[in-house]
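In this section we walk through a basic example: taking a raw amino acid sequence and producing a predicted 3D structure, encoded as discrete structure tokens. The instruction is simple. Fold the sequence below.
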Amino acid sequence: MPTKQSANLDAVSKAIIEQLQHDGRKSYASIATEVGLSEAAVRQRVQRLLDAGVMQIVAVTDPLQVGFLRSAMIGLRVSGDMTEVADALTTMEEVDYVVTTAGSFDILAEVVCEDDDHLLELLTKRIRALPNVVATETFVYLKLNKQLYNWGTR
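The resulting token sequence is shown next.
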């Protein structure tokens, strides 16, 4: 989660991050060659970046390939404190992304479900049942056209 104070990254740390964004399995030795540090120095920098929460190294799956046939973005309108609703959404296993916003919706939540019945149950029995949820609008994903994870060092 972002903090109010952002990390102060030098050019070498940004270059390491860019290398890992391209290939999260890239060896420290290979990265070291690219950025001009020793393998040990790269390993230490990566560990510091991980410990500080600046980055994560994770496997990203295609939900369709692992049995989750329905993904959607849900816009929520909330009365009162948005934080309580956002916090409740973060505890739901199906919810993988939650942001509070300024605009037509107070909160946007991305969900990944097994099928339409699972989405319907989640939406009607759990999300709409949260206190202070006034209205929802669901945007069912038909096709993923683009998804990148390289915004971190521009």
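Looking at the output, two observations stand out. The radius of gyration is 19 Å. The longest strand covers residues 70-78. In the next section we compare this with other chains.
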